[in-house]
Amino acid sequence: MTVSAATVTSAASPAMPRLVPLRPPASPVSAGTYPHITTDFVSGWHVHDEHQIEYASEGAVQVQTATARYLTPPQQAVWIPAGLPHNTILRKVRTVSLFFDRELISGMADQARVLRVEPVFREMILFGARWPIDRTCEDALAVSYFTTLAGLVERWLENESPFYLPVSEDPVVAAAMRFTDDHLGTATVERVAVAVAVSERTLRRRFATVAGMTWRTYLRRSRLIRAMALLDDPKRTVLSVAAEVGFDNAGAFARAFTDYTGQSPSRYRHSSSGHRGA
User: Fold this and answer.
1) Which domain of life, per UniProt (predicted)?
2) CATH fold of the domain at 168-276
3) With helix as H, strand as E and coil as C, how does the chain read?
4) For residue 121, what pLDDT band results from cuts at 50, 70 and 90?
5) Does the reported pTM lie above 0.85?
6) Domain spans of the chain?
7) Residue 276's pLDDT band (boundaries 50, 70, 90)?
8) Alpha-carbon span 66 to 79, nearest angstrom
9) CA nearest neighbour of 9 among 37, 47, 35
10) pLDDT tens digit string along 29-73?
């Protein structure tokens, strides 16, 4: 992550984020990195003056904005535009954040986005770790390197991945989302409706209107995003992951996972192990 626990206050909502400075005053630096290793960290709502890419080489990162939640396993990274209030949750992870001055990357400043981290992207992120964002002087190699990387990021941003879930301030829909996420293995629309004290018909209509997707779509996406994070654990079998997120058999899970990610669970796990070894 980008800040220590001491530098972020517990802002209550995205409406009252804290600005967290990363560069010294009048810094000549236009881009840099911030590595972070932690077992349990919640940043609180905050913003940066710089564009950020959060990449986890181990573990998974969760980033929440006012409109969505993004879970980024090792094969993904999340783009956080400058000035966007966000709350980052880190659990047993090793991350590297890239930061770019607003002038280096134009556009794509409306919302967070999930990017697939191809091997060349991963290596460039890790190589850039030699230039911390809080350094006090600039050098020609760093300028050239981050300018090139910024150009590539603009291209990668055109092909974002749909690995996010909506959030809502509607109390019924928000409660339905929480219950669903907490009971992925057993959630049904009937059980959720009982839990949030509305009829099934009301739940379906209200959820689709507020969240922009049906409850069934939300359940499926939440299951698969959770599965992506669980597959990063080499101690878990594909079958156990499928069962934990609510699939009755490995075949149905494999088809759904492949449709969503473009890779089979086994191939995804193999790629993920390569990221851990980086």
Assistant:
1) Bacteria
2) Arc Repressor Mutant, subunit A (1.10.10)
3) CCCCHHHCCCCCCCCCCEECCCCCCCCCCCEEEEEEEEEEEECCCEECCCEEEEEEEEEEEEEECCCEEEEECCCEEEEECCCCCEEEEEEEEEEEEEEECCCCCCCCCCCCEEEECCHHHHHHHHHHHHCECCCCCCCHHHHHHHHHHHHHHHHHHHHCECCEEECCCCHHHHHHHHHHHHCCCCCCHHHHHHHHCCCHHHHHHHHHHHHCCCHHHHHHHHHHHHHHHHCCCCCCCHHHHHHHCCCCCHHHHHHHHHHHHCCCHHHHHHHHHHHHCC
4) confident
5) no
6) 5-159, 168-276
7) low
8) 15
9) 47
10) 999 999 988 878 899 999 999 999 999 888 778 899 998 988 877
Q: Say which residue the tokens 């005053």 belong to.
A: 25
CATH number of 5-159: 2.60.120.10
